[in-house]
Design a protein that fits this description.
Helix content is 70%, strand content 0%. The chain is an all-alpha fold and 296 residues long. It has a domain at 86-289: MetI-like (MetI-like fold), CATH 1.10.3720.10.
Amino acid sequence: MNVAVRAARVPLVGLVLWGALAVVAPLAMTRYAAYSLVNGPGALCAPPVAAGVGQPPASRTCGVPLTDLYEMSLPALIADTGMRSAVLLAGAAIIALTLGVFIGAVCGAVRRRAVASGAVLAVTGLTAAIPSFFVAYFLQIAVIVFGANASGSRFLPVYGFGYDEHIVLPLLAVAIPAVAVTAQLTAARVSDVLDSEFITTANAKGLMQSWIMRVHVLPHALPVALEGLGSGLRISVASLPIVEYIFQWKGIGYVALQSIASRDPAALTASALVLVTLFALLSFIADIGRPRFAYR
């Protein structure tokens, strides 16, 4: 019952946001002129031009509803861009659960080696404190500066959409904060479990360390890892519009920024609802993953 009550917060948050945006967004958008998202708020919209061969609809003009720019209905536009963002978050979740738990387990296992464990935790702590859009910018600059070969081409594209090599940098930018938070919480939990009495008993019986870690330690650490995953991905969702803008990924966060530039309250409300629902769901995951009783 308690879980159901906490789960009810997700649609409640969405309902409150929808009510606020339905009233505020149209009034606020009448107070400024539409502008080019690429060139910034200081750049007014260019007059419409005829569509050329191969010219994407979204590049023709600005200041008109996004359904006209993309030549799609609003539900189809939100579904398409939402899927692009969902792919990034799903990939980041997989990376965080695997790499984050691994790093955390290693740090917890070598907890008595203060230098090694402390260095890894310091790096993950510093990484967790850096917003995802800064990570995105640093990755982009690193590829531009160090990723070019003699011919001038780069081994990874630094912007653009595609479920190929184009996804690598956006996925890393979204995943790295989640990996760092997951690793930190997992390391703390693993360290606590390894100091418990039943682990001392397992060591006294001569059980292999790999068996102890896999069978006795990690099951107690996984709920905390789930909490770390939810908390880490919330950081990524909060930075998602800027990350998608930097990489021109054109997911749901990019559409939210574009709807503000084009003064489209319907698209802003729909995209903001998706983003806030993702944030609320991740908060719910972090909440139910938080241990509320001691292990036995």
